[in-house]
């Protein structure tokens, strides 16, 4: 059987989900594989993100994973694809 991937419907067209991990070091200090999450879409992984970097990094993301990185109201309002 083939691998299934998560998709979003945009105007009747299926698109792959964009997943952004803002502080990957907290989730995975280097001893784990990210392959399990990659099956759900395109993944951008950042070890750490400053408040200033968050806005540009999540602006076209569908899903954002964070633990310690601060996500401001401005960042969320500019991230129009967030589910």
Q: Can you tell me about this structure?
A:
This protein has 83 residues and is α/β, with parallel strands linked by helices. 27% of the residues lie in helices and 23% in strands. It is built from 4 helices and 5 strands, in the order βββααβαβα. The chain has helices at residues 24-27, 35-38, 51-58, 73-78; strands at 7-10, 13-16, 18-21, 42-45, 63-65. The strands form 2 sheets. Strands 4-3-5 form a 3-stranded parallel sheet, with no helix packed on it. The chain has a two-stranded antiparallel sheet with strand order 1-2. A hairpin with a 2-residue loop joins β1 and β2 (13-16). The longest helix has 8 residues, at 51-58. The chain starts with 6 loop residues before the first strand and ends in a 5-residue tail after the last helix.
Q: Count of helices?
A: 4
Proportion in helices? 25-40%
The proportion of residues in beta strands is: 15-25%
Instruction: Note the main sheet.
Output: 3 strands, parallel
Shape: flat
Number of strands: 5
Order of helices and strands: EEEHHEHEH
* Protein structure class: alpha/beta
Low-confidence residue ranges? none
Average pLDDT taken over every residue: 86
Calculate the terminal CA-CA distance, rounded to whole Å.
Answer: 28 Å
């Amino acid at each position: 059987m083939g691998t299934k991937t998560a998709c979003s419907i945009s105007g009747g067209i299926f698109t792959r989900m964009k997943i952004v991990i803002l502080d990957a070091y907290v989730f995975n200090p280097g001893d784990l594989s990210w392959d399990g999450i990659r099956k759900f879409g395109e993944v951008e992984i950042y070890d750490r993100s400053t408040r200033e970097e968050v806005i540009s990094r999540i602006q076209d993301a569908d899903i954002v994973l964070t633990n310690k990185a601060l996500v401001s109201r401005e960042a969320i309002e500019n991230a129009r694809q967030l589910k």
